[in-house]
Amino acid sequence: MRVCFYTLGCKVNLNETGALEQMFRSNGFTIVQEGEPADVFVVNSCTVTNFGDQKSRKWLRRAKRENPGAVTVLTGCYPQAFPEEAAAIAEADVVTGSGNRHAVLTDVQKVLNGDAERVVDIRPHEKGERFEELPMNKFADHTRAFVKVEDGCNRRCAYCVIPRARGPVRSRDEQSILQELRRLADAGYKEVVLTAISLPSYGTDTGTSLVELIEKAAAVPGIERLRLGSLDPDMLHDEDIRRMAAVKKLCPQFHLSLQSGCDKTLRAMRRPYTTAVFADIAAKLRAAFGAENVSFTTDVIVGFPGETEEDFKASMDFVLSQQFLKVHVFPYSRREGTPAYDFADQLPEYEKEARSRRMTEAVEAMRAEQAAAMQGRSAEVLLETPLSATLFTGYTKQYLPVLVNAAGHASGDIVRVALGEWDGKRCRAALI
Hints:
Elements: E1 2-7, H1 11-26, E2 30-32, E3 40-45, H2 50-66, E4 71-76, H3 77-81, H4 83-87, E5 94-96, H5 103-112, E6 119-121, E7 144-151, H6 162-166, E8 170-171, H7 174-186, E9 191-196, H8 210-218, E10 225-228, E11 230-231, H9 238-245, E12 253-256, H10 263-269, H11 275-289, E13 295-302, H12 309-321, E14 326-331, H13 349-373, E15 378-386, E16 391-396, E17 401-405, E18 414-422, E19 427-431
Parallel strand pairs: 1-2, 1-3, 3-4, 4-5, 5-6, 7-9, 9-10, 11-12, 12-13, 13-14, 17-19
Antiparallel strand pairs: 7-8, 15-16, 15-18, 16-17, 18-19
Helix pairs in contact: 9-11, 12-13
């Protein structure tokens, strides 16, 4: 039996798809790539935006059209957040949510064995539920490993459907994480990314903390680089920053979730910080890790209900003032069931798209400036995708994409390079 996976969304989804692949493989399935014939097609969905839902439906329709005898599966955040809508998608033979990933294989086997024509198995999140263990040993086609340490979010931002899709904060057992890290190190992984739905919330339900986990993870032999997923700036405290700066294996690249650079819009979004708080946290991280050594990435939403042209310009000005290495720009997506869905002064789609283009153009110019400022520096690069026998793409600790000719090396190696010119996509580099 052959199974094909299609993953949308965040690194948590990427981790969960990897775990599902491992589960199917251990039960006799062969994993095939998109475009190849298969007996089972699984889309691991993202529902942050309407566009994500559309992509899931489109992929399922195509899979069913091109492989009419195959079992098609819709799983993940989309069915969990919108169970009735997802259950009505006729092209999906199996529909499951994000609450019980182990059920995916069982439900697929029911359809394959003829025990059921169709299975809808979406289990609601419940108060007091535990973190679902989905251990990983290897990530196909990846040279860095993604380790999920937490699920769920207790915040209620006005635009966000994720608490509905993911449920409350649930932290993974520390020993389970460390055991997985040791297995990954034994498998040859040198860089590990700690991922979560609300990473700074790790341990708030179990009496530990993210910084304690970072310190213990860094002590695992064989792990040379630790990288963190998205962080809410208001949840980073002075002591956390001090302790993180002492962890030499921690990559000094921080994805600080901004969403808007306008205080009025942040209040409307129900984000629990101001631009001043954000700037203060960024300044403290620069001081702790070294201004030339640290880098920042972020997410920004444009076209939120009530955002005026002046608000947008204020957001743009603040974003540019923070000198991000990378900014992910999203036009606001109206999600049913969120407070912002009913807000007055909804902007037309064309205006949201226009602002997205303007913001994207500005932040890409800033990205080029940041990359140019690094020219001439030395850096350590994790070699990832080989473009030829000797040419590789990779990333520095600061998450600067690099292109380097590294004859005699292989994907997964960490090499020292001299950074050169930015070509619009990557920094050209040479081995030292």
